[in-house]
Input
Amino acid sequence: MKKITTIPTFEDIQRIHEAIRPYIHRTPVLSSQSLNAIAGCEVFFKCENFQKVGAFKMRGATSAVLALSAEERECGIATHSSGNHAQAVALSAKLQGIPAYIVMPENAPSVKRAAVEGYGATIFTSGNLITDREEMLEKVLKKTNASFIHPFDNYDVIAGQASAAKELHEEIPDLTTIIAPVGGGGLMAGTALYMNYANPNVTVLAGEPELADDAFRSFQSGKIEPVLRIDTIADGLRTTLSDKTFTIIKNHVEEIITVSEAEIVAAMRLIWERMKIVIEPSCSVPLAVVLQQKERFKGQKVGIIITGGNVDLGKLPF
Amino acid sequence: MKKITTIPTFEDIQRIHEAIRPYIHRTPVLSSQSLNAIAGCEVFFKCENFQKVGAFKMRGATSAVLALSAEERECGIATHSSGNHAQAVALSAKLQGIPAYIVMPENAPSVKRAAVEGYGATIFTSGNLITDREEMLEKVLKKTNASFIHPFDNYDVIAGQASAAKELHEEIPDLTTIIAPVGGGGLMAGTALYMNYANPNVTVLAGEPELADDAFRSFQSGKIEPVLRIDTIADGLRTTLSDKTFTIIKNHVEEIITVSEAEIVAAMRLIWERMKIVIEPSCSVPLAVVLQQKERFKGQKVGIIITGGNVDLGKLPF
Output
C-alpha cells in the first residue's frame, strides 16, 4: 500500500478498512433499554473496548504499518507512548513480523510495560516529560532507522480510526448523530471525515472534558490551543490537537461540547452498571454530553464510539 | 403451556427455549486470546451478564410464568429474594402483563428495590432472616392467591436455565467441557441435563466456593447438606441445593470442584481486565476452577456460563 499524503478520501477509508480487516476485531454495537430510558434517546455503543489491545488504537496503528514500503518494514516501527498506542504499535508490528521500538516514560504503569513486552517490542525508558520522550525517540529513530508512527498526526492512522465509525454506521444506518471524544483528534477526525462522506446529514459532535478543553478553545479561536491542565480523569484526552486532525475537525465537526468531571464519572458508572462493560473514563464523555443536553437528543439515534477498556481496577472513581 | 412435573426431557428444554425466546436476549459468547494464553485452553464465556435484568435468572422466571394457567396468571406471581431472581420475576410478570409480589428483606440494597419497583412489582418488606422472608411470603400468597415462583426448586425454572447451555453449545458445538457455578443448583441442573441430552461426551463440572461448599459435601455424602457459612464473596452461591436440583446434579455432574476466595477474586479480576466485562463474583468461580487445574484442561474447549453482572461498584474487591 502507499502512504496517504493528503486528507483521506472516502475511497481511502474504504480501502484501508478492507486492508486492516484481517488484523482487527469487528467489535459489537451494544445498546441497553434501561439506559435508553434514562437518556431519552436510543444510544448505540461501538465497543472498541473489545478491540485487540483493548482500544480503537489498533485500527490506526495497523493502517500505518500496512502503508510502509518493504524497505521500511525491515527497519521496523517506533513510537513514544505510555498508553494504548504503545500496545497497538507493538501488536501491529508483531502481527506483521517486523520489529517495534517503544519509548515509555519511567512512570508508565508496569502492567502496560508488561503488555508491550509481551508483544515482543523493545522498550526504551525515558524521563516523564514529553520532551524527554521525544528526545529519546529521536535517538531511537537515528539508531534503528525505524519509521515513527505518530498516534494521530498521520493520515493513515486517521483513515484507520475512521473504520470504527464506518462499522457502526453499517450496523445502524439510520443514525442521526454520532459523538466521539476528542484528545489528539485522530479518532474524532476519522469519525467526522467518514460520516461527512457516507451521510452528511448525520450530526457529528465531539465531547471533551472541561478540564482539557483545548479542542473546544481551538475550535473557537481558529488556531490550535494547548492543553493547560492534565488532571482530568479522562486520561486518554489530555492531548493537544495536531495540524492534520485540527484541519479536519474544524471543517467536519458541528460542535465541541465540554462536560465536567462529575458528569464524566456519572456517565461512566451508568455504562458500567447498565451495559456491564469495562470502559475507560475517556469513553464516557460522549454519553455525558447526551445526558447534559437531553432535550437536544430526544428521540434521536445516537452513535457513540467507546474508545477502550484499559483501566486500572485499583483506581476506580466509584 | 403445561407445567413440567418430572425431570425435564430434551424435548421440554427445546420447547421451553422456543417459548421464552421472544422475552429474553440471545446473549453473546465471548473469548479472549490473551486470557486463553493464560489459561492454556480455549475458554468460551456465555455472557448472561448481558441478559435482561443482568442475569440468567430471566430465563427460568420467564419459563415459569409461561407455564401458568389463565386463571393463575390473573392472580399473578410472587417470590422472596433480595437479588437477581426478584428482578427476573418482576420483569417477567411485567412482560406478560400480570401482577408480581416480591418479598424483599429490609437489608436489600436500595438499588435492587428500585429496580424491582421500576418493573411495576409490589414489594413487601420482611425481616432479614430466611424464616422472616418465608413467613411474609406465606401471608402474601394467602392474600393474593399468586403463584410462588421458586428460584430453583421448580422444573420449569430448571428447563429455562438450561437454555443458556443450549445456546452456548449451538454456538460452540465442539466444546469438551462445560462449567457452571452451583448455588441453589437451578443453572447447574439445567446445564447438566441439557449437555447430557445433547452430547454426553462433554464433561460437566460444577464450581463452588470453599466457603460455601454445601454442594460439594452433598455430592460426597449423597444427601443434601446445608450451607454452613454465608461469607463467601460469591454472594449468588450462598444457597443450599433443593431436592429437584440435587437429584439432577447427582446424576449428571461429573465433579464439583471448590475454589478459595483468593482464587475467585483473581479470576474475577482477570475477566474484568481481559474480557472488559462487568461480572458478579459468582461468575468467576468456573474460571477459577480452570486456573486451579490447568493441566487437566490443557488444550480443551471449555464453556463457562457467566451468570450475571449485577455488582455493587462501590464494593469491589480490587
In short: The first helix of chain A runs from residue 10 to 20. The mean pLDDT of chain A is 96.
